[in-house]
Every structure is written in C-alpha cells, then in structure tokens.
Amino acid sequence: MEWRRTADAAGVIGSCPPLLDGFIEVRGLGILNARALYGEAAVAAAAPLDLVIDLGVRAEATAEERLHGRRASYTVLGVTVPEISLPRRVGHNLAVLVEAACRDHRLRLSGYRADDDLVERQRRRLEHPE
Asked: What is the pLDDT of residues 100-124, one digit of tens each?
C-alpha cells in the first residue's frame, strides 16, 4: 500500500503499487485477482483512508468493550483515523463483521450510536417500568 496526504493535508489516500493492482492475499486461499472475481467496479485506483480495522485481536472482550467495542485511533502520515479491533474466532464470518463495523462507523459519523441508544432505552425502562 502506498499512502499520500490529501491536497488539504487533512486526510490520507491509499493506492496500490501497479505490480499488485487488483490482487489480494486471502489466507487459506492464496493470491486472488479481485478484478477477475468481482469485476472492475470492485477495484479502485485509490481511496481515502477513513477507518482502520484490526483483525488480529484474540483476547476476550471486557464488559466495557462488549458495550462500546474496541475502538482506538491509528496514525498514518501524521493523520489520525479511527480504528476498530475485531476478534478472530472460529465460526465468525469476518466479511460480515467488517461490513457491520463499516456501517456502524458511518452511523456514528452521522451522530447515531447504538450503545448510547440502548443505555438510554434501559434508563427509561428503569424509570418507568411497565
């Protein structure tokens, strides 16, 4: 991966070296050609780095992490971007987890947080039991 700062220096854009363009390594499957598998629209020449997902986490989550997730920040070329750490477990579909993490990240950027929503719902229920 090759990184460069955006024109306004507020973000980072990643691109692939020409030699590796369109190829991806999938552990257990080897080298795949994403363009041949999924079509031209599946491969971008460059893209902004908005979120880092760490798939290397193995430890069990704490009670706090179960509610809020494992969230941190990652710095590339002096630009800090959000990072989410997802645990690898047998039977987990990582593609689905990554997609859910990306969708949740977009919701958070728009101001919605599911964890806060649930805590508020529980607070209201405790104040007004049915």
From this structure: 999 999 999 999 999 999 999 999 9
Residues 6+ apart with CB under 8 A from 79: 5, 9, 10, 11, 12, 49
45 φ/ψ sector (left φ>0, alpha ψ -120 to 50, else beta): alpha
Per the structure, how many domains does the chain have?
Answer: 2
The reply to whether 111 and 63 lie within a common domain is yes
CA 129 → CA 38, 117, 121, 122, 126, distances in Å?
51, 18, 11, 10, 6
Entry pTM: 0.79
Residues 48-71 have a mean pLDDT of: 86
Our CA dihedral for 59, 103, 47, 87, rounded to 10 degrees, sits at 10
C-alpha dihedral sign at 93, 47, 82, 113: negative
- Do residues 88 and 113 both lie within one domain? yes
